Amino acid sequence: MEILDRHLKRAEPGYRFVQGKKYETHFFYNDTQKSVIDKIKTIVSSKTKAFKANIYLDYVLVNRQTGEEMAFTEGFNTNVFKKPVFINSRADIQDRIIDYFSQEDLLSKISFPSSAWMVKKITGFQIKLYNRSHTLGAEIEIPKKIKENKYIVSNFGDTENKCVFYCLAYYFKMLEHTS
C-alpha cells in the first residue's frame, strides 16, 4: 500500500512510472528541460542505494522537403549519455546528472546534418535508474575470499575506498626495501 501511495502522489498528466526488476523508468511528456531537471532532482534525492542513470529523449523529426513527420521514442541513439552514469554519492547526482543535463544542448544529441530530416521538437524525456546494491557514499566491503587469501595483501584497515592507492604504496615500499 505504501508503494502505491508513493506512486499515486507522483501521478500527474505527462508523467508515468514503470518499476522493473533491474531498473525503474520515469517518463515525462510535453515538459520543458528545466522542469524535468527539477523533477529528476526530486526523484534521485530519495534514493538511498547507489545507482546508474541514463536519460533518453523522445522527439519528432520533420522532412525538410516533404514536411512528413516521424516520431521517435527511447531506443537507438536517443540517450543523453553514451552509457549509464554511475552514481555512488549524493555529490555525484549534482555533478554527473544535473549539471551535465542542464548545460547540454539536447538538440545537438539528435541532429542529422547530412540528412533531409531535422528535429521539430522534443516531446518527452525518460530517465532510467539502474539498481545497485551498496548504499550511497558507503564503503565497499572487500570480499572475505580476498581478505583471507594468503597471496593478497589486504590488511590495510580503513581504506576509504582507495584500495588501489594503498596497493601502489605497498608495492613501492617493497621496492625500496629490495633495492
Set out the fold topology.
Blueprint: H1 2-10, E1 15-19, E2 23-29, H2 33-45, E3 49-63, E4 69-72, E5 85-87, H3 90-103, H4 106-109, E6 117-135, H5 144-147, H6 163-178
Antiparallel strand pairs: 1-2, 2-6, 3-4, 3-5, 3-6
Helix pairs in contact: 2-3
Report on the architecture of this protein.
This protein has about 180 residues and is of the alpha+beta class. It folds into 2 domains: about 1-135, 2-Layer Sandwich (Dna Ligase, domain 1); about 145-179, no CATH class. It is about 35% helix and about 30% strand. The protein has 6 helices and 6 strands. The chain has helices at about 1-10, 35-45, 90-105, 105-110, 145, 165-179, and strands at about 15-20, 25-30, 50-65, 70, 85, 115-135. Strands 1, 2, 3, 4, 5 and 6 form a 6-stranded antiparallel β-sheet that branches. A hairpin with a 3-residue loop joins β1 and β2 (about 25-30). The longest helix has 16 residues, at about 165-179. It is elongated, with a radius of gyration of 22 Å.
Task: Give me some keywords for this one.
alpha+beta; Dna Ligase, domain 1; 2 domains; 6 helices; elongated
